[in-house]
Predict the 3D structure of the following.
Amino acid sequence: MRLLLVGPANSIHLARWANALAERHEVHLATLHAPGDQVYDPRVRLHRLAGPSTRNYFLAAPALGLLARRIKPELCHAHYATGYGTLARLGLVGVRTPRVLSVWGSDVYEAPTLGRLWLRLVRDNLRWADVVASTSWAMARQVERLARVRRLAVVGFGIDVDLFRPTDRPDSDVVTLGTVKALAPVYGIDTLLEAFALVRRATPTPVRLLLFGGGPDRAALEALADRLGIADAVTFRGQIPHQAVPAALAELDVYVALSRSESFGVAILEASACGLPVVVSDADGPAEVTVDGTTGLVVPRDDPAAAAAALLRLVTDPELRARMGLEGRAHVLAHYTWAESLATLESLYASLVTPRRSRTA
């Protein structure tokens, strides 16, 4: 298939999709963003239409239209129901090709709350697509609340289970908790620190907390750890590249994700694939990818006491940690492998392209 992807070239998730698709298809990626740290397969043809700015999602539409008319894609797949969805909808006027629009989270949870113009923009883009693709069933339900779309599909972000796999850890009396998340309010790092303080006071078992991630709240969170009297047991490791995440997870005994809002749970699944038990909030995405009581424990958002109780169960019971870790790995292998996700996406594409090929044959 000849595919035209429209989205941010600096996204690790889009880079993974494009590189995998390029192994079997002709892939063009139209973007306003430079790739940054993302490395693309030479077979992915990058088309930088303009620089990243709000107005360029509108002004670059003619350039996208010219590109589409030149390469004649069999399918266009835009990413984000806000900026790039708008660029694709305006740029592909008059271009006869099936249209897929992937929603990513903030575009359908946050943008529609910014005002009537944003809500209308998102709704227009959702209705433009032949298929709206969501990474989770929870976010698919959010799409249905916003607009009546032609067709809705769930295509999750798959996990590379060869890269994310269990590793042997040296024996230690210290139980290490941790997360790999940006230090931003939405991810509930403050709740994690408060829960960790309760855990530390409640058990004689030595515990420590590793935080992998950068963000605007680092100074405030470091100050909170100091006020809670846990600064000596909390380490802020800073932002790390994705290729370093498996090594980071190998340092942990329990993975924690107490997000206030999250549309999927890639990091949680990566931890599960590594054989770690997880403690997660009941936000849509984390709750969907975690089997409560089997692969981990689900707790209410913004509830340090509930999170601490769940963490204490795992800190004080190594057999439970091991059992949930094994179940987590099995859960990912059964439902969330990269190969399965790629096959689902290609099947979706084929369902749109094959009928058109038959009509034009």
